[in-house]
Amino acid sequence: MLLFSSIMITSLLPAPQRVIAKTSDDTAVASVKSPSLEKLLSQLVTFNEQRDSALVGYSGMREYQAGNGLTRARAEMRVKVIFHNPGSKDFTIISENGSKVIRKRVFLPAMEAEKDAMRSDLRQRSAITPDNYDFTLVGTEDLRDHRCFVLEARPKRKDKYLLRSQIWIDAADYSVVRIKGELVKLPSFWTRKVRFMRDYQKVGDFWLPMRDESITQLLILGRSTMTVRYYDYVITTKTPEEIFPPAARILE
User: Fold this and answer.
1) Is residue 2 part of a domain?
2) CATH number of the domain within which 62 lies
3) Which of 114, 113, 103, 112 is closest to 67 using CA atoms?
4) What is the model's pTM?
5) pLDDT digits over 62-119, tens only?
6) Cβ-contact 16, 207 below 8 angstroms
7) What is the rounded CA–CA span in Å between residue 207 and residue 114?
8) What gap in Å lies between CA 148 and CA 40, rounded to an integer?
């Protein structure tokens, strides 16, 4: 039996988000007024579309760590990840140690689940959009030197790919800074609760995952935890000419 039930979550959250340059007319972040909920959601969708059109791929490193409080089992794994837009990820294990059970039944399934989640149907099914969630704008909050709008997201259906969550949106560029919540549909009778948090970091013109933390409460084995640290990103993007090709010449 898997020690963790949150292995699918990391693969179903927003992919890299591109930062769109602001004009000189924009006011300081601290003085930004809360937009309407409709405008905020529209900006999120727009940024995602522009991200997809600009991103060719990226490479990066990850450190997986996991443990169970009852069994005292622990494991670590360092992995290199190469992503090719729109739909492939390759994982190369650099080093590993600790519990063989955790490595084989937690870390490796998490990577396979992330590959499967690249399918377009699963991406749509888990996307943070009004198709999948009802949203409420609950206020603003400072998070790691970023002024953020805070949304509550309530899934429209009981689906294992959706989270009941709070989402922090950067007020300057409408990118996701943090997602924190819990699975709305538990994967098995043995799982009592799954809580999850992901923080994003700004790398060049993109926001990319920085750290994941999941806590799973199991009926028999008690509390299990898993963290993933992301670092050493190298991003490949399209040139402006590739994103906005020049108009075709008119032949005489």
Assistant:
1) no
2) 2.50.20
3) 103
4) 0.82
5) 999 999 888 899 999 999 999 998 778 999 999 999 999 999 988 999 999 888 888 8
6) yes
7) 18
8) 11
